[in-house]
Amino acid sequence: MRVLIVALGTMGDVAPYTGLAARLGEGGHEVAVAAYARFAGMVRATGAEFREVSGDPAAAGGWTQAEDGRQAIRSMRESVLDRGRVILDAARSHRPDALLLSLPAMPGLQVAESLGIPCAGVFLDPLYPTAEYPPTYLPISRSLGPWGNRTAHHLMNGVFSLLLDGATNQLRAGLGLPTLSRREIARQIARTPVLHGISPAALPRPADWPETMEMSGYLWPAVAPGWRPPADLADFLAAGPPPVFVGFGSRSMSGQEAERIAGIVGEALRRTGRRGVLQAGWAGLTGHSDDVVTIGETPHEWLFPRMAAVVHHAGAGTTAAGLRAGVPTVTIPILGSQPFWGGRVAALGAGPAPVPYRKLSVDRLTAAISAAVSRPGYRAAAEAVSGRIAAEDGAGRVLAALDRLAGRAAADDRT
């Protein structure tokens, strides 16, 4: 089966799909990944074909799964037609038998209908309404209670519908499809199978979800065969006790802001007496101490288990990697779904309460790191979650679902 995975966004939005692409290839499928040009090498290293999507996730205003709510809505409204067109171009180029869509690529649902091929969502964040937790893109980290959670979901869905249904129907018209009402669009989404690349150990599947919605287990980025750590990193790790990792992923910052954050991190590490591994990321953070090493892209699968604790922005993928490693986590949510995932880490007991980025200070970060590395309960809880994650096979669940999707498509063709 020829499969096209459409993965739009920043590094954290795309990397998990590289491991999925490799697994689907091992399962006998011909796989291509449509993504931004900067991810071409990462995709091709898995053996999958690459289909370029125009745009740059590092540019201001680019839509990612990590944007704040208002910016994301504005960007989505402006880009539904563009996303639909680039997905259609990629599909015409690859000629897939099925589409797998990341959350930002959901306009591809209309493309799949126009091409008469099956599709499924493969999301890294949950979106469908539930009474069990609030919308992940609200800047809150705690439940609003069953009534409050469901009401918040319906209010957000109403806003999304008002903003996006018109653009969706414009896309459908361009594809030669009939106009759908708001209710019909909602039913279309509810009927579409969605596999969430999320561990039930981190977020149990809501009991009030429809059968089409699954928690498949985490999806992990592919690691290049024979990868070796840079010599300076290996030497640093060997020269002392386990350090603390600090990184903010694909968050862009001005030079002045990056310098300020690096200063806070350096002073907090000094006060706690801990060595640090600082990931430069797209912000270009740099350590200024013999006890801090600055690194570029490094597989979290290899790095995090060697840490005393991990400090990060609570992106879905980085949160997953921290829980997988079984080490305490300090989260500093910035926007998007990050407050939600920071709240989940705390609820699991795998780290202290989130430190919101806007309130980040030397004192707050020092206290959070100190708690993470000194209280045995955090490590014990993290190790317990890690053990449950290790027993899961998220990519395998997606592969099985894809095979079921292919079987249904074949049966439909026969009838």
Automatic annotation (TrEMBL):
Residues 3-133 form the Glycosyltransferase family 28 N-terminal domain. InterPro entries: EryCIII-like_C (IPR010610), Glycosyltransferase_28 (IPR050426), GlycoTrans_28_N (IPR004276), UDP_glucos_trans (IPR002213). It holds the Pfam family EryCIII-like_C. Residues 290-393 form the Erythromycin biosynthesis protein CIII-like C-terminal domain. PANTHER family: STEROL 3-BETA-GLUCOSYLTRANSFERASE (PTHR48050), STEROL 3-BETA-GLUCOSYLTRANSFERASE UGT80A2 (PTHR48050:SF13). This is Glycosyltransferase. The lineage of its organism: Bacteria, Bacillati, Actinomycetota, Actinomycetes, Streptosporangiales.
